[in-house]
Amino acid sequence: MNSKKAFIQVIKENEGLIYKVAKVYTNSKEDEQDLYQEVVYQLWKSYGSFRNESKISTWMYRIALNTAIAQLNKEKKKGSYTPIDEALLNRPDTKDTLKEEQIEVLYAHIKKLSAVEKGIILLYLEGKTYDEIATITGFTPTNVGTRLGRIKQTIISQIN
After folding, report:
1. Within 13 Å and on the Cβ side, how many CA atoms surround 51?
2. What pTM did the predictor assign?
3. What pLDDT, in 10s, does the model give residues 37-83?
4. Which domains does the chain have, with CATH numbers?
5. b or e along 117-150 (b: 16 or more beta carbons within 10 Å of the residue's beta carbon)?
């Protein structure tokens, strides 16, 4: 299988993680699509250097999170920011189930976290172990546990 076909297959198999990162780090559908495309572009640029020293999903998360944080920092420098409340108010009316509404509330609270905290909680919600999160983020597993505890407390305090 040639490199291009292999890359496309990897993206298809793991596109959910790219969408989740894009959703957490953006406030509009357009920005989400732009970030998705930027992540795929960065993955393509780096694909040839992937050494199979970790799972492909771990490598993809690392690039996706770094790309999202870089994009976020670029946006901050521009000074353009749309508050989350406005983004939620402008979404089309749909018949949401209770679970979908709860997920939206959770995402709204996650969006209030710092860039690093967003990445850690996203990986945790994906079912990654502390060791896997540590590998992706560069923190120690103990530090990941400590940070997750603080993140959970922050989200709980926002809800209450």
Report:
1. 1
2. 0.64
3. 999 999 999 998 888 888 898 999 999 999 998 888 777 666 555 55
4. 3-159 (1.20.140)
5. bbbbbbbbeeebebebbbbbbebeeeebeebbee
Give the tens place of pLDDT for each residue, 93-109: 555 578 888 888 888 89
In this predicted model, what pLDDT tens digit does every residue of 99-143 receive, in sequence order?
Answer: 888 888 888 899 899 989 999 999 998 899 999 999 999 999 999
Distance CA 126, CA 146 (A): 18
3-class DSSP state of 114? coil
What share of residues in the chain are helix, strand, coil (percent, to 5)?
75, 0, 25
* Nearest CA among 30, 116, 12 for reference residue 73: 116
In the chain the first and final C-alpha atoms are separated, in Å, by 53
- Token pair 């292999």 is found at 6
* Token pair listed for 84: 């989350």
Q: Which of 131, 153, 132, 155 is nearest to 24 (CA)?
A: 155
Compute the Cα dihedral for 139, 141, 146, 152 and give only its sign.
Answer: positive
Which residue, among 78, 77, 82, 79, has the nearest Cα to 32 in the 3D structure? 82
